[in-house]
Amino acid sequence: MEALLQQIEKYKQEIAAAEANTPEAVEAFRIQYLGTKGLLKTVMGEMKNVPNEHKKAFGQVLNEFKQFVETKFETLQQAAGGGANSASDKSFDWSLPGSFVPVGTRHPLTAVRNQIVSIFKTLGFAIAEGPEIEDDWHNFGAMNLPEDHPARDMQDTFYISQNPAWLLRTHTSSTQARVMESQKPPIRVICPGRVYRNETISARAHCFFHQIEGLYIDENVSFADLKQTLYFFVQEMFGKDVKVRFRPSYFPFTEPSAEMDISCLICDSKGCNVCKHTGWVEILGSGMVHPKVLENFGIDSNKYTGFAFGMGVERICQLKYQVNDLRLYSQNDVRFLKQFTGVV
Ligand code: PHE
Q1: Distance from the CA of 213 to the center of ligand 1, in angstroms?
Q2: 174 lines ligand 1 (CB under 6 A)
Q3: 287 lines ligand 1 (CB under 6 A)
Q4: Taking residues 61-89, what's their average pLDDT?
Q5: Closest residue (by CA) to atom 4 of ligand 1?
Q6: pLDDT tens for residues 201-255?
Q7: Alpha carbons 61 and 333: distance in angstroms, whole number
Q8: pTM of the complete model
């Protein structure tokens, strides 16, 4: 023990006398005394040989020694130019341009999906997600499309198995079904996600696309609420000057049903391929939730009413960024994707 203390004193003298005038010498000091195989580690290692009754006192000596070495190191560092990154380090050229960090771009569909989601979030809609592989009930049956219902033809379905029927969901209404199954009104959700339909791939159709469907169920929800919500959405998404119109339509899960068109942003309603020379583009389907759908989930249709809507993210993106071919979204062509740099 005595010998050890004397030894430490000796080290202290040696360290106190140490000099280092260059950053390299400071680094050599650090390695010699503070490095993983340095002197401090070795001295610390002696602790295990010290008898128990002296451990406390020796611990204090060790701590002091450690601080002593560290203080010396800092002093040397400052004297030699205050560390490698300090402004006085002449070996470093501070005027050099920073190294370039490549930043990726968000996929336009992700960006537009996020924009749509954040608009509905401001209205208090929560996000719900569900599986892409669905059973017949959640995709069709619960949505008032019993077997052999002709409206099933509207959605060319990819079946995975027949009996029991598993399929790739054709709309995210299936997620709405799952929400109604597990939650009680009031319900206010939007359901973003990928959906699949067996269509020939062309500029206008693809075998998968992305939807955002919305569902709002509470007491006294009316068609006026539906319209106001969707007007708000369109103005937030496309600006105040866009015109909107509703057309009566048919969906098995809503009654009454309506499709919503907006004035064509591609040609300023002058007539083009996208609006088929009508000046109007359909952007979503909507309607008041069919009482049968509510009853399928044990929701009292005398007490509660609701509205639902569904839109394709690709279509919104097309109008917002003038993308004229659906296939571009999934071709991974960087020349296309790069154009969305900075879009969030
Ligand atoms: N589920 C419909 C579709 O995919 C869209 C829709 C949703 C229509 C809700 C009305 C109400 O075509």
Answers
A1: 7
A2: no
A3: yes
A4: 80
A5: 171
A6: 988 889 999 999 999 999 999 999 999 999 999 999 999 999 999 999 999 999 9
A7: 66
A8: 0.72
| 108-340: CATH, from 3.40.630.30, 3.20.20.150, 3.30.930.10, 2.60.120.560 | 3.30.930.10
Tokens linked to 194: 């990928």
Minimum CA distance residue for ligand 1 atom 8:
285
Confidence of residue 8 (pLDDT cuts 50, 70, 90): very high
DSSP string covering 60-99? HHHHHHHHHHHHHHHHHHHHTTSSTTSTT-TTS-TTSPPP
Q: For residues 161 and 194, is the Cβ–Cβ distance under 8 A?
A: no
Give 111-149 pLDDT, tens digit per residue.
999 999 999 999 999 999 999 999 999 999 999 998 888
Mutate which of 140, 154, 155, 171 for ligand 1? The one with the most ligand atoms within 8 Å of its CB, which is: 171
* Ligand 1: residue whose CA is nearest its atom 6: 310
The b/e string for 206-228 (b: 16+ C-beta within 10 A; e otherwise) is bebbbbbbbbbbeeebeeebbbe
Asked if residue 259 has its Cβ within 6 Å of ligand 1, the reply is no
Q: How far is the CA of 214 from the centre of ligand 1 (A)?
A: 9
- Domains of the chain, by residue range, sit at 2-89, 108-340
- Compute the distance from residue 310 Cα to the ligand 1 centre, in Å: 5
